[in-house]
Design brief:
CATH topology of the largest domain: Aspartate Aminotransferase, domain 2
Number of helices: 13
Distance between the termini: 26 Å
CATH architecture of the largest domain: 3-Layer(aba) Sandwich
Structural class: alpha/beta
Strand content: 5-15%
Shape: globular
CATH class of the largest domain: Alpha Beta
Number of domains: 2
Order of helices and strands: HHEHEHEHEHEEEEEHHHEEEHHHEH
Oligomer: single chain
Bound molecules: pyridoxal-5'-phosphate
Largest sheet: 7 strands, mixed
């Protein structure tokens, strides 16, 4: 249907009529009455934290992704930090991560005094490139972190082979990919440790929240201690020995997720498959519409996986346009489309330049991609009209700046 739409009007940024009056956000949560009820039920109960809703959410989530264990924590960054601590990252240890990710992936390594090593991405998917990983493995490498960028799983067969060959832990920062799959296996079961975020902009939400999934029960119990100040005895053990008895073998944090949040998570998880389906429908409409727009190249999706479409990312063919990404970004914002950029390569930020001697030239594919990428709105509450507006605005702006 989109092929019939023709926009010849002046760009809003040059004083023309915008496609929309009210800006469409690039993402956002879906909250129903059932979610609200789940939370208020907990508020009326005996436990607001460390109660039965935590166990129930962990069990439901591990069931959903098909792992032995799921450990709920206060956010996705805490999930990454907890995972880094569990595998014993310390001074001198290197952790290989893609540079196209949210900074928390790198920061979690630094929290444990490890060194983040930035690897490059594949030019078409912008996922961690196993060849770049291979080039960066040293005697100090301990962990490879895949980031399922936009919601598409990395090449876990290749990453697994590298991890096994060099005796490394494989971690999936799956914060974008809740509800996705790779070769028929659910995201969350693809690496040794898998981390999730339930921030409102992600595929399901608990307000703030996170989860680590694994089949390693020993690591899971260490992670449950770490999220609770490092306290080793369970509530049950304490009740048996006298309520004051507990031990702190290692220092921990307070990374607990409340029962209200876990109840919300349970309620959201039930609807996640429907939402992922809706995200994929929106993406399919974009794909069809942009197939006929030379200057717009959606990132490549592989046949063997199901992308959960946390983000819909396009790469602009800048040699067909008279302006750069920044001008296209501004023009789309002026049309009322809340586009975004995911991400500034992490190794560009001053902190990593200063402390880890990073900078231009370290990851040339990611650096070139960064000049071209734009994130378009995708979230389940979008209407068909919202999708049409986005398509119309992209076409209009690209036509307006065509060389
Ligand atoms: C959102 C996100 C995080 C951090 O999650 P928070 O819940 O915001 O702490 C980490 N990594 C990636 C790839 C993310 O998208």
């Amino acid at each position: 249907m989109e092929t019939t739409v023709q926009d010849t009007g002046a760009l809003a940024i040059s004083g023309g009529e915008p496609v929309r009056q009210e800006t469409l956000a690039y993402g956002g949560q879906t909250i129903g009455e059932d979610d609200i009820e789940a939370v208020t039920d907990v508020l009326r109960s005996d436990y607001l934290t460390t109660g039965p809703a935590v166990d129930a959410f962990e069990e439901a989530f591990s069931g959903f992704v098909g792992t032995e264990e799921a450990v709920a924590v206060s956010n996705g960054t805490a999930a990454l930090h907890t995972a880094m601590q569990a595998v014993g990252i310390g001074p001198g240890d290197e952790v290989i991560i893609p540079t196209i990710t949210f900074a928390a992936t790198a920061n979690s390594v630094i929290f444990e005094d490890g060194t983040p090593v930035f690897a490059d991405v594949e030019p078409d998917t912008l996922l961690l490139d196993p060849e770049s990983v291979a080039e960066r493995i040293t005697d100090d490498t301990k962990v490879i972190v895949g980031v399922d960028y936009a919601g598409q799983p990395c090449r876990y067969d290749a990453l697994r082979e590298l991890a096994d060959t060099h005796d490394l832990t494989l971690l999936d920062d799956a914060c974008h990919a809740t509800g996705g799959s790779y070769k028929g296996e659910p995201v969350g079961s693809l690496a040794d440790l898998n981390t999730f975020s339930f921030h409102p902009v992600k595929n399901m939400t608990t307000g703030e929240g996170g989860m680590i999934t694994t089949d390693d029960s020993e690591l899971a119990s260490e992670m449950r201690e770490f999220r609770n100040h490092g306290i080793s005895s369970t509530h049950h053990e304490r009740a048996e020995q006298g309520s004051w008895v507990y031990e702190i073998p290692e220092v921990g944090y307070n990374y607990r997720l409340t029962d209200m949040q876990c109840a919300l998570g349970m309620s959201q998880l039930e609807k996640l498959p429907t939402w992922v389906k809706r995200r994929r429908e929106i993406a399919a409409r974009y794909d069809a519409a942009f197939a006929g727009v030379d200057a717009v190249e959606p990132i490549t999706m592989r046949e063997n996986s199901t992308c959960a479409y946390h983000l819909y990312v396009i790469q602009l063919n800048l040699d067909m346009l008279s302006v750069g990404r920044e001008e296209v970004f501004d023009a789309l914002q002026a049309e009322g489309i809340g586009v975004n950029v995911h991400y500034i390569p992490v190794h560009y930020h001053p902190f990593y330049r200063k402390n880890f001697n990073t900078g231009e030239g370290l990851c040339p594919v990611a650096e070139a991609a960064y000049e071209r990428i734009l994130t378009l709105p995708v979230f389940p509450r979008m209407t068909e009209e919202d999708v049409s507006d986005t398509i119309r605005a992209v076409r209009k702006v690209v036509a307006g700046y065509k060389l």
